[in-house]
Design a protein that fits this description.
This protein is α+β, with helices and mostly antiparallel strands. The protein has a domain of about 30 residues. Helix content is about 20%, strand content about 40%.
């Protein structure tokens, strides 16, 4: 996704919309302890090594 700000600067943003359980599992596979919740339209969570 490409976004142009009001000052004229253009930036590229990559968004990956994970399912909370899938993101927890993937982070767990990397050695992280994660808790991710969805309260649509928002997602929140914590993670630590």
């Amino acid at each position: 996704m490409r976004r142009t700000l009001s000052g004229g600067d253009a930036h590229r943003a990559v968004k990956v919309l994970w399912r909370p359980a899938e993101l927890e599992r993937l982070l767990g596979d990397l050695g992280w302890s994660a808790l991710v919740r969805a309260e649509l339209p928002f997602y929140w969570g914590t993670a630590r090594r």
